[in-house]
Amino acid sequence: MAHYAFLDSNSIVTEVIVGQEESNLQHDWEIYYGNIRNQVCKRTSYNTYEGTNKNGGVALRKNYAGVGYTYDSVRDAFIPPKPFPSWILNETTCNWDCSVPYPTTGVKDENGRVIMHQWEESSLSWVSVS
User: Fold this and answer.
1) 116 assigned to some structural domain
2) What is the value of pTM for the model shown?
3) What are the two backbone dihedrals, phi and then psi, of residue 34, each rounded to the nearest 5 degrees?
4) How many whole angstroms separate alpha carbon 4 and alpha carbon 111?
């Protein structure tokens, strides 16, 4: 099963569908689906994340596309929406990195619960959440 992403005029993903495998040589499926919708269509791999295929296969377009992702034709990559203004695009993974490392995992409170953190853009820091 193959997945295909439709792009608007700004290269933003508007929808992802399940379609024909490219091994079915009846059509160039990106062009075929794109012509039906009158939109640019790009294949995306459900198993690809940050440039790696989790099943060991070929990583396709850096990340599995999602609605709201941007397709970058220069990088031939799907890039997720930027989560915070301060985060920086990682050119290798085509995902967003924070300049401040996430706090050490496994830190626990006095009751033995793992302390979770979330990014706070106003202070440019990770803050603990209960």
Assistant:
1) no
2) 0.86
3) -60, -40
4) 47
Residue 11 counted as domain residue: yes
- Partners of residue 13 on adjacent β-strands: 7
Residue 70 pLDDT grade (very low, low, confident, very high; cuts 50, 70, 90): very high
Nearest C-alpha neighbor of 50 from the set 110, 4, 94: 94
Provide the 8-state DSSP code for 24. -
Would the pLDDT of 25 be above 70? yes
Answer yes or no: is 33 within a domain: yes
Q: Are 49 and 64 in contact (CB under 8 A)?
A: yes
- C-alpha distance from residue 10 to each of 72, 77, 106 (Å): 10, 14, 41
d(CA 14, CA 77): 16
| pLDDT single digits (tens) 98-109 | 999 988 766 777
67-85 average pLDDT score: 98
Q: What's the first-to-final CA gap in the chain, in angstroms?
A: 41
- Could you tell me if residue 76 is inside a domain? yes
Please compute, for residue 112, the number of CA atoms within 13 A of its CA located in the half-sphere on the CB side. 0
